[in-house]
Amino acid sequence: MIGLGERVGASPPRVDGAAKVTGAARYVDDLQPPGCLVGRTVRSRVAHGVLRALERDPGFDWSDVTFVTAADVPGRNVVTLIEDDQPVLVPVGGTIRHHDEAVALVAAPTKEKAEAARAAVRLVVDPLPAIFTLDDALRAEVKLHGQDNVFKRFEVTRGDDVERALAACDVVVEGVYETGAQEQMYIEPQGMLAAWEGDTCHVTGSLQCPYYVHKALKVTLGLPAERVVITQAVTGGGFGGKEEYPSMIGAHAALLARAAGRPVKVVYERDEDVAATTKRHPSRVRHRLGLAKDGRMLAADVDVLFDGGAYATLTQVVLSRGVLHAAGPYRIPTVRIVGRALATNHPPHGAFRGFGAPQTTFAYERQTAKAARALGMDPVALRRLNLYRDGDVTATGQTLRGSVAAHPTLDRVVAQLEQPPPAGRRTLPQAPHVKRGRGVATYFHGSGFTGSGEERLKGQATVAVAADGVLEVRAGSTDMGQGATTTFAQIAATALDVHVSQVRVAQPSTDKVPDSGPTVASRTCMIVGGLVDQAARAVRSKLEAFAAEVGLAADDPARGDLPALARRWAAARGELAETHTYRPPAGIRWDDQTYRGDAYPVFGWAACAVDVAVDTDTWEVVVERCVHAVDVGKAINPTIVQGQIDGGTVQALGWALWESVQYREGKVLNDRMTNCIIPTAIEAPELETLLVEEPYAHGPFGAKGVGEIPMDGPGAAVASAVEDALGVAMDELPLLPEVVHRRVRAGRAGGAA
Amino acid sequence: MKVSLVVNGAPREVEGGPLRRLLDVLREDLALTGTKEGCGEGECGACTVLIDGEPVNSCLVPLAQAAGREVRTVEALASGELLTDLQEALVRCGGTQCGICTPGIAVCATAALAREPGADRLRLRELLAGNLCRCTGYQLVIDAVAEVVARRADATDAGAAPPLPARTAPTAPGQAGPGVGSRGAAP
């Protein structure tokens, strides 16, 4: 029987822990099949233009180099996702749309030779005028997409006419909020390894979504499903950055391996990864919030603009989530939210933890802070007056039914702030030039796919007695570090009443596991974990019935020994596989046309308070305290859940204070870890992470999503804390010292206060 | 040129130009793939190894500079299946998630604990500031290392030998290192 220390709710060590601390875990770059070639990508180096020719240096020794262009694509030359607009390789005669597009591929026996071959390819390009700003995209003098450069527009409305409602408010707060591109900066760069066995293509690599790569490669290679096999290697972080781009690299590796007749590994250098792969969408949000004198929020008008970059990729889905969260976790009777994603000549922006919500959360939480100031109210009191409670109705008309923890999370943060700060924290000295402030934020995040997404997806998971008699979880959801493997093992072990070590979680491979849907959207534990729970219970019932069939007496202790029964089943009957398919709970309704209804099956809730110290000589901002309470429904493994919240919090602090990918004429200027910085152990504060458990009736053991919500709110809390310290509005991120200084100077000169 | 060095206690002779990166020698020639490459410019610390007991970024060490030196990699921390107290704490406390930075952190923290056995949390943060982690926010990493500091201090106070000292102390120059772990052993 499962021990108490392993059940759901306890924190057994992660099942992949030992392999990771000893260096035994094998990531894609650690795989080296015999004869494997090194693949490299020739990139456009022009933000917009027509590719006229690809010229290979005739003086270069091409004898041991495999060279691939768009002409070598056997299927369709597109990276299939939502719209098939992005080519795997830009063809000669085709249009280059950003600075780091793949136009050709080389493979050679060594890195040095592959690098030299890449440098020996010259592009002939007729440049075209390009777009690098939201304003230029809106002006549409250059047309990159349709007539208006709008990839997608969403509108959500609730209540009366918003202008009339705002006009009737006692106070209207208005602001424009800007955020920059943020790099996921997983420490393992992207990489894929391809090898053909006869006419079947095997691709193994660093990825979040094996079935996305599978879907894309079938199209690119023109192969039926069974002849493309995608396997996830141990993956060194994803955060959304390995959601879609692995399809591109996988296609490149597969094309090279096909042409070379040997395995080919394409692993990106760091600069290539930062420049070419997707980043968080830069944003500009204009927000008007109307309130009554007593602090009740009455009307919100929100205009959201995202820079989608050069291709559609996942942008419309990111925008959708941003829009659906843009009014915040507040009761507001009149709401209008308009979101537009625009085409530019930047490399496509894409998925990154939070998926559009951090940008709109930054805006509404800065607005809430400003509203409290305008009304002379305590920011916590203002929030308590307006935060959702069970039964309230959201901007899309969704009635919240249970598992609403907006108030409990804020209460936990307020209580924690009354405790002394943790020992060992980094502080600035008490000195006249050091100013201090506090910022608070409250927010929510929908778990799972938006609207009818989960219903369309029909994710599946299997629990099996494998042929070797071992109890096995089979899911297409990947572990990229977030702990999915351990979480699934714990859920299955608890449902089966066996030790965690008696459950094996299969490495995701499209020939061995069902399509559970992508490993994104805070859905893995809640949706797929729920399927694992159901499937495990079904296996348990069958094995218990089997015990009776083979004549074990009801009081025979062997009847409760599921691993032994599983072995016996396998010996007698072979494999037993129970596959469950997701069905949304009854009563969930969503209309994609009107954007009305139940936007998400359930929401997670969070509150964050940040204390900062600002050195007014250097304008350095130090986070001296960070209290973060997050409602996760039920923490399957509290240590893993805390790790998710801690990691997301520090990514959010990085986005708030340091992290911004800088473009000039569409080229990334800071494409290295030395200049595209992320927090080290010194900048990261001592975190005070608090778990709140407001169970969700339809999640496994009550669990909801946790992966993304910690990314959403700390940015606004930091900006509000800096504003509190300096008395100057901080309406953009990141608040690098030069940004804080510029804003203070502008504020002193009579700007916003 | 041929270069002789000691890797995880075993004398090795490797081939390569003097500027060849130690990281590539370890990963490609000696199949010690536990040492990872995250940036290739000495920023992330995923490739940290010990040279004569000192933590260094092996992506910045030219082969010539490693000649005659004692190199210790993550594969040599554990003794077979037996993890060091630090490795065990990293796993149990949640100090490893995706794991790509973990070998570098395990190696660097091993040296840090040996050099400054009484380091407090803030000092541990400084000692590990050369190892970037994108998953944990460092909190549970520091928890794990601080716990080892405390446990070793308790063990010393109680007059007992610190747990697993032979395996967790960095190898002194000229001294044979502990055996290579059961996985990732050199061919």
Strand % of chain B is 5-15%
Look up the CATH topology of the largest domain in chain B.
Ubiquitin-like (UB roll)
Number of helices of chain A: 19
For the termini of chain B, the CA-CA separation is 21 Å
Oligomer: heterodimer
Choose one word for the global shape of chain B: globular
Main sheet properties of chain A: 7 strands, mixed
Q: Give unreliable regions of chain B as ranges.
A: 161-187
The low-confidence parts of chain A are: none
Broad CATH class of the largest domain in chain A: Alpha Beta
How many extended strands of chain B? 5
Q: Architecture of the largest domain in chain B, CATH level 2?
A: Roll
CATH H-level superfamily of the largest domain in chain A: Aldehyde oxidase/xanthine dehydrogenase, molybdopterin binding domain
Tally of distinct domains of chain A: 3
**How many DSSP helices of chain B?**
7
Proportion of residues in β-strands of chain A: 15-25%
Secondary-structure-derived class of chain A: alpha+beta
C-alpha Rg of chain B (nearest Å): 16 Å
Largest sheet of chain B: 5 strands, mixed
CATH H-tier superfamily of the largest domain in chain B: Beta-grasp domain
Helix content of chain A: 25-40%
Task: Outline the fold blueprint.
The complex is a heterodimer of chains A (753) and B (187).
Chain A: H1 17-22, E1 37-43, E2 49-56, E3 66-68, E4 95-96, E5 102-108, H2 111-119, E6 121-127, H3 134-139, E7 150-158, H4 162-167, E8 171-179, E9 191-197, E10 200-205, H5 210-221, E11 228-232, H6 245-260, E12 264-267, H7 270-276, E13 283-291, E14 297-309, H8 315-324, E15 334-343, H9 357-375, H10 379-386, H11 406-417, E16 434-447, H12 453-457, E17 460-465, E18 471-475, H13 484-496, E19 503-505, H14 524-549, H15 562-573, E20 576-581, E21 590-591, E22 596-597, E23 602-615, E24 621-631, H16 638-657, E25 663-664, E26 667-668, E27 687-692, H17 709-712, H18 714-726, E28 732-733, H19 737-748
Parallel strand pairs in A: 1-12, 8-28, 10-11, 14-15, 18-19, 24-27
Antiparallel strand pairs in A: 1-5, 2-4, 2-6, 3-5, 7-15, 8-13, 9-10, 9-12, 13-14, 16-23, 17-18, 17-20, 21-22, 23-24, 25-26
Chain B: E1 2-7, E2 10-15, H1 22-29, E3 48-51, E4 54-57, H2 63-66, E5 70-72, H3 85-93, H4 102-115, H5 121-127, H6 139-157, H7 165-168
Parallel strand pairs in B: 1-5
Antiparallel strand pairs in B: 1-2, 3-4, 3-5
